[in-house]
Write a structure and sequence with these properties.
Layout: H1 3-14, H2 19-25, H3 30-37, H4 45-55, H5 59-64, H6 71-100, H7 106-126, H8 132-139, H9 141-153, H10 156-161, H11 164-177
Helix pairs in contact: 2-3, 6-7, 6-9, 7-11, 8-11, 9-11
Length: 185
Amino acid sequence: MNLIAKRIVEARKTRGLSQEELAEKANLNLRTVQRIENSENEPRGKTLNLICDVLEINSTELVEGKTAWSAKRIANIIVTGLFLIALNMILMGIIGYLTLDSNANLNSRVGGVLVSILLPFSIVVFTRKMSSIERVLYFGSGYVVYFLMTVIKLGFPRGFVVGLIPCLLISVTVLYFGNAVFKKK
């Protein structure tokens, strides 16, 4: 596989696109995309530009093998990172409030368990094309940090008794193994 074909395949897979979806979005024939990815054809001109537009990569980067860090790309990474940090903090806060609050009773702890199953499961539903590890890194990193903070601050026994540690473990487990629900037999 030549370098351009390899980069196109990698970019297509990171975007979660199949060959059919790439061909459809780029207004190309499926066989053309297959030939390019199998290194049977070298994409040039319009074909290369159409593929690069869909995959959101620069055609000169693809040909020359360089990765340019444009201002738009850097801004996109920063905004995505800030959004994920905020989302993780919100998820941590919801479960923490339902289990650690001084007024937390059995009902709120049961609510914490339900939320620790349903919120991550809804994340799995909307990110099915994402790998399990990637999903845990994006959406479960807050849970892991919160778990470590709980063990350090409260201790494992107290965190377990109030229900916070089980809720955090349930959430991370659902994020990681959630795709198994959608697997076809």
